[in-house]
Specification:
mainly alpha, about 130 residues, about 100% helix
Length: about 130
Amino acid sequence: MGNAESKGTRKKSSRADSASASRNQRAPRQTETDGSTQESQLPQLKEQVKEVTELTKQNLEKLVERDGKLEDLEEGVERLQESAVYFKRTTKRLHRKMWWQNVKMWIIIIVIAVFILAVITGVVLWKVLL
C-alpha cells in the first residue's frame, strides 16, 4: 500500500511541477515581449473595433427599418379601427332598418288577418241573419 500511495503522490507532484514549470516559462515571455505583444494585438483590436462598429451600424439600420415598419403598422391599425367604427355604425343602421321592415311586415300580416276575419265574420253573420 505504501508503494501505491507514493506512486499517486508522485503523479500529483509531477503534474504540479509541470504546470508550474509551464507557468514559469510563459511568464518571462510575456514580460520580455510585452511591448511587442501589445503591438501585435493592436491590429487585432482595431479589427475588433471595426467589426463592432459595423455590427452597431447594422443594428441601427435594422432599428430604423423596424421603426418604419412599426409606423406603417400603426397607420394600418388606425385605418382598421376607423373601418371598424364605420362598420359598427352601418350594421346598427341596417339592423334598425331590418327591424322596422320586420315590424311593418307583421303589421301588414295582422291587418290582412283582421280583414280576412272581418270578411269571414261578415259572411257568416249575413248568412245567419238571412
